[in-house]
Amino acid sequence: MGVKGNPWWIPLDNSDNSKHEIFQPSNLANPKKQGNKLGVPAILVLAFVISIVGGFLGNIFYNQISNVRLNSTNTVVERAPNSIAAIAAKVSPAVVSIKVTGSFGGDTGSGFFISSNGYILTNNHVIANAAAGNGNITVNTTSGTNYPAKLIGRDSSYDLAIIRISVSNAPVLPLGDSDKVVVGDPVIAVGSPLDLAGTVTSGIISAKDRAVSSGDGNGVNSYIQALQTDAAINPGNSGGPLLDSGGNVIGINSAIATVDNSSFGNQSGSIGIGFAIPINKAKAIAQELIKQGYADHPILGIELDSSNPNQAFIANTEQGVQSNGPAAKAGLKPGDEIVAIDGKQLDSPDQLIVLIRSHNVGDKISLTINRGGRTFDVKVVLGSSHNQN
């Protein structure tokens, strides 16, 4: 199929030789007509020149690439004194990580200094395993130093605890006024979620006065009239501060709402609904814990009927109304339904407990009672949990 004497050919098809088009440049077909042939020395010189020129051009091309300048700026980012970055830098040294070991297991959480001589406020459920199982509490500061901590006092009812480490001149966070917080206020959460120390998140106050009940893992429930926030809060944030735009503590991050995550490997985390204990209540409890190791809280002196989750009925038993307690003195009886407190309608027994505990021992409150279809109001002076029989 080939054509003799023709060094290049381009096949148009494969039918026969007659259909091959021959490309035969005259210069190559008759090399003797080229004139003087190039000798070996000339070829070497030509190769050398080509290499020099190629290197020169390559160097130019390389320099063009290596001399490309990226668009940089010397602009200085100015951060306002109340920016998230500025607040985070100011408050983070006062926030600590807490690790607990005990016979009932280990826990991690957060806390913050409330005094320069080492007192730290945190959640009771963070240190509960150490308290119940004679375990150890270790505090890690932002300097990277670990300190053994002593439990000063705790209160499961409010989910608060005070621990202390041996330091002086500790950085202290200023305590704000949670009563002045309004829905929509910007907030910042600082803590150690999932053991990631120094984590800062931000959001707003989503709601106030949320009735929240949470457990400490040992069968003890806390009842909180909480601040709700959409700042990301995850396991490990517990006990850390919730701060306002001035860097003042307005709450202690304590709980999160969760959903059924069975389709995600049973993983749980922030869904934008977190809860914090208002600092005004926490501050009063903290002072009691430091002073006497325990906290007093107000009581009605009743036992609620747990069979009805939507209404606050007094248990229709002998133990329903405590003898000589505040409710008994006000004339309440077993089987009574408490409809409202200070005019606020109740939708669950938990809400009644939360609202009672938002008051102080000795406060006078008004209860709306439904007894056999008859509704009336009574005044009750709240008693002391420490003095109950």
Helix content: 10-25%
- Tertiary shape: elongated
Query: Structural class from helices and strands?
Result: alpha+beta
Low-confidence stretches: 1-36
Number of strands: 21
What do the pLDDT scores average to?
83
Give, in spatial order, the strands making up the sheet with the most strands.
3-4-5-8-7-6
**Distance N to C terminus:** 117 Å
What oligomeric state is this? Answer: single chain
Strand content: 25-35%
List the helices and strands in order: EEHHHEEEHEEEEEEEEEHEEHEEHEEE
Radius of gyration: 39 Å
Specify the number of helices.
7
Largest sheet: 6 strands, antiparallel, barrel
Briefly say what this structure is.
This protein is an alpha+beta fold and 389 residues long.
Question: Can you characterise this structure?
Answer:
The protein has 389 residues and is an alpha+beta fold. It has helices spanning 26-29, 40-66, 84-91, 124-132, 279-292, 326-329, 349-357; strands spanning 8-11, 20-23, 95-102, 105-113, 119-122, 136-140, 146-155, 160-164, 186-191, 199-215, 221-229, 241-243, 249-256, 274-278, 298-299, 312-313, 337-341, 344-345, 364-371, 374-381, 383-384. Strands 3-4-5-8-7-6 form a six-stranded antiparallel beta barrel. Strands 9-10-11-14-13-12 form a six-stranded antiparallel barrel. Strands 16, 17, 18, 19 and 20 form a five-stranded antiparallel beta sheet that branches. A hairpin with an 8-residue loop joins strand 1 (8-11) and strand 2 (20-23). The chain starts with 7 loop residues before the first strand and ends in a 5-residue tail after the last strand.
